[in-house]
Amino acid sequence: MTQRFSSPYRTTRRSPRGSASRTRPRDPARRVAYDVLYAVQTRDAYANLLLPVLLRERGITGRDAGLATELTYGTLRLQGSYDAVLDACVDRSLRSVDTEVLPLLRMGAHQLLSMDVPPHAAVSSTVDLARRIVGHHRARFVNAVLRKVTARDLTGWLSVLAPDRKTDPVGHLAITHSHPRWVVQAFAEALGDETSSGLKETERLLTAHNERPRVTLLAKPGRATVTDLVDEGAVAARYSPYGAVLPEGDPGMLRLVRQGRAVVQDEASQLVALALSRVPVSGPDQQWLDMCAGPGGKAALMAGLVGERGGRLLAAEVQPARAGLVARAVHRSLGNSARVIVADSTQPPWRDGIFDRVLVDAPCTGLGALRRRPESRWRRTPENLAELVPLQRALLNRALDAVRPGGVVGYVTCSPHLAETRGVVTDVLAGRDDADLLNAARHLPEVPDVAADRFVQFWPHRHGTDAMFLALLRKR
């Protein structure tokens, strides 16, 4: 689907790359999009964190803010497809193109191939921006490449560049839907999608990753209700009794968000924490633990839930800065029912066997949140799994040590990759004789098509959420 935007032209003095000028820059939307793309490429910045900051600092609102957002996220989502097109249009390998020039080419390609911007306006506005950022000589190179891009539309380019779907369905989907090949393969395996079927469900998932996600809010238990959010213009979420969807606008403008009574949190993130809270336990139910609490969304929900039962949550986070985010998220939770500490949960400061419920929201590749963080698909590699999986196993083992007999552990990842999900759980259980795997979907009866054997797996194309995984285990 194309997006319709105008091509603004304003006159002002040139400002240095990466900084806001004292006067409003010419074409501010494209400039801020470039600065975000450049930061993502060169210093691993996150677009969802940096873009709102730059928009606010530079006073960019309304139509310009919409254009900047579409340019940033649209370019990141379809970067793989655009790179294939650009590689065919440069005289040398795309890898040899200067790091300052590459975001300009990708932005120009996005306007030409996926937005309803006239070709002459897309080329001229990008070249004009290039002159002010990289100089006249390299701007001529940008002009030459983008004029070659105009030779075909996106469908035409992909029909020429993508591998044949019948002989190489994974490679075909990787190019046409802009995902690394290894990621497409991993999704197909997690879905149980057969190559012989043409990977039809995998294609539905990849399509969902390239669509703009909804903003979902959490009404903190004891501090706000979904009705409160609806009164501010939100719509009740599909599944979560604590969730609401904001159809449009900035969530930071909502009174409840400004007051800390509601936060942005994906619906699947709410539901996995809710499922953990629903598992029956015999005996006391007062001491809960969140082992990897940053940035604090699940901790905020769990603090409210345990507070309603007269208990308390201990939220641990190894990084001090993220622990500060957790503290703000649970601030003034129901009955002051949360305590936040900086701690390495693989070497915990607490005693074994003292918690009734333990959540392990393990560090992972983040492949389940590619709708919201599209740049992650280009950062992660299979080698990351070799680093993360041992950590995930260690955390799950420590969680089972921390929970009391009869208590329950929830293992969660924002990734559907089999190595990070059922692979971790199966390996840990194989080395222990004191825990049983529960049927996790039984505790989310309101969500259809979420069961994956005894696990829970959310999917963007099925549930409209991030691809969150949940396993529930009971200590014998």
UniProtKB/TrEMBL annotation:
Give the molecular function GO annotations: RNA binding; RNA methyltransferase activity
Q: Which family does it belong to?
A: Belongs to the class I-like SAM-binding methyltransferase superfamily. RsmB/NOP family.
The record's section on InterPro entries has: MeTrfase_RsmB-F_NOP2_cat, MeTrfase_RsmB-F_NOP2_dom, NusB-like_sf, NusB_RsmB_TIM44, RCMT, RsmB/NOL1/NOP2-like_CS, SAM-dependent_MTases_sf
Q: Does the keyword Transferase apply?
A: yes
Q: Which residues form the active site?
A: C414
**PROSITE patterns reported for this sequence:** NOL1_NOP2_SUN (PS01153), SAM_MT_RSMB_NOP (PS51686)
According to its UniProt entry, the function of this protein is described as: May act as RNA methyltransferase.
Organism ancestry: Bacteria, Bacillati, Actinomycetota, Actinomycetes, Streptosporangiales
Q: Which domain of life is it from?
A: Bacteria
Keywords (A to Z) from UniProt: Methyltransferase, RNA-binding, S-adenosyl-L-methionine, Transferase
Annotated region Disordered: where?
A: 1-27
In what ranges is there compositional bias, type Low complexity? 1-10
Quote the SUPFAM superfamilies the UniProt record gives: NusB-like (SSF48013), S-adenosyl-L-methionine-dependent methyltransferases (SSF53335)
Q: Name one Pfam family in it.
A: Methyltr_RsmB-F
What's the protein here called? RNA-binding Sun protein
GO-annotated biological processes: regulation of DNA-templated transcription; RNA methylation
Q: Where does S-adenosyl-L-methionine bind?
A: C292, A293, G294, P295, G296, G297, K298, E317, D344, D361
